[in-house]
Amino acid sequence: MTLDTAFTGYxxxxxxxxxxxxxxxxxxxxxxPVLDPSTGNTLAEVPDASIDDAMRAVDAAEAAASEWRGxxxxxxxxxxxxxxxLMTDHAEELAxxxxxxxxxxxxxxxxxxxxxxxFFRWYAEEATRIGGEFRHTPSGAHNILVDHEPIxxxxxxxxWNFPAAMATRKIGPALAAGCTVILKPASETPLTAxxxxxxxxxxxxxxxxxxxxTTTTPGPVTSAMLADPRVRKLSFTGSTGVGRTLLAEAxxxxxxxxxxxxxxxxxxxxxxxxxEAALDxxxxxxxxxxxxxxxxxxxxxxxxxxxxxxVEGLTTRMAKLKLGAGYAPDTQCGPMITINAVEKIxxxxxxxxxxxxxxxxGGDPMPGSGYYYxxxxxxxxxxxxxxxxEEIFGPVAAVYRFESEEDAIxxxxxxxxxxxxxxxxxxxxxxxxxxRGIETGMIGINRGLMSDPAAPFGGTKQSGLGREGGVTGILxxxxxxxxxxxx
Length: 487
Ligand code: NAD
Prior knowledge:
Elements: E1 20-22, E2 25-27, E3 31-35, E4 42-47, H1 51-70, H2 73-89, H3 91-102, H4 106-126, E5 133-136, E6 143-150, E7 153-157, H5 165-177, E8 181-184, H6 190-203, E9 210-212, H7 218-227, E10 231-237, H8 240-251, E11 256-260, E12 265-269, H9 275-287, E13 297-303, H10 304-319, H11 339-354, E14 358-361, E15 376-379, E16 396-402, H12 405-412, E17 417-418, E18 420-424, H13 428-437, E19 442-445, E20 460-461, E21 464-465, E22 478-485
Parallel strand pairs: 7-8, 7-10, 8-9, 10-11, 12-13, 12-18, 13-16, 15-16, 18-19
Antiparallel strand pairs: 1-2, 3-4, 5-6, 6-22, 11-21, 14-15, 17-20
Bound molecules: nicotinamide-adenine-dinucleotide.
Nicotinamide-adenine-dinucleotide (NAD) binds at residues 157-162, 166, 184, 186-187, 218-219, 222, 237-239, 242, 245-246, 260-263, 294, 391, 419, 459, 464.
């Protein structure tokens, strides 16, 4: 593998990927070019795993399984803790790698590394606190004992938008629970996953406990793994469309599924909101990662009395953002992941404009190389525009006006998604009432950022099944076993 370091200063060969990572061995190969979205240039090439390779990864995970589940929780915990420390020690190199292959601004990439590493620290702590349950039957005649066992081999599939955090949010709890895993990162951003695997080996993760493979044929490769009776868990983060396909695939062998899928977050601002706080929150909720986040505010519903001031404030803030290559030091908004992503944003914005929306800033694609779309604010957007119902996944804030609290809740719930929502109001009773009325798994009240390894992350409706992070995240990788005990 070669990495063009001339203009990036990326200079830590020990973190470079060397091939598929199966059973603790690196297997050289090629077939998947990894592009720099800032330029479209090829950064590196990683191997294209076949079904046979994937089955060898399942063999490796199986070979390591019984020893790993028998490893004392304290020891599993210490390995995860060392992995956290190593990620922290290598934070700057990892951030640069993320920025190179994903395009996000270095400040966002640094934030991601800290967030990602924290899942290892959190689950290092949780590994030693796996609970069970004891109770008497209501008759008083018998006893109920519930143990939690590792569920078995887990296939982990992750998207490109948070190449480090989406992997650690699964690997951390899986390893803490005593499971062995096969990670399939997105082909757009595999370098971060392979770099983290190297750090995992250095932290003492035994051979075969974590296997990593990249492939251009994720459908057949995943189906083959799910059909193998040794695989008992699928944990997927990605689009709702692929999630639906995988749920159908997993149903054939009744594999347990955790699904973290797409979102369409409403951001509701009431007249009595602190305008500056709402604008600060809006910039984080919209522009973190250049808008390429499942929790990104997709629809801004702003009450009439504050609407014009909000649009003006948001436009001013968006105008100040510095657009450029993610790894350039002063960049605040990097390129989108692919040219297809830019084309999708352009299609959504053009449709909204053709139906009466007005851009107060941005609103047109940019000439030149790299996959850029400018920060954009749209007002007067019809509520049935396509971008009110599809994930924009880019730096476009669509603003809608509303009058009453009831309208805000109805509009917020007018989507098949149910991941995240934001509510801004100085009246905390109202904010909580509206929060309860909105059908999502997560609500930010006067906050534009909700992701926290200690909190249960996940969605309702077509945004997913299960929760990652928090005290319950580990249970996604465990199976309760009930003992009816007579004593
Ligand atoms: P995607 O669904 O296209 O791909 C996600 C992963 O699935 C990638 O690794 C991809 O290679 C793999 N994949 C694609 N087709 C597959 C198949 N048939 N079988 C098995 N694997 C397959 O999503 P993406 O474009 O990489 O990521 C963006 C999406 O992810 C957005 O919808 C976003 O909202 C969602 N997302 C959700 C969360 C969450 O926590 N809910 C977090 C981040 C991203």
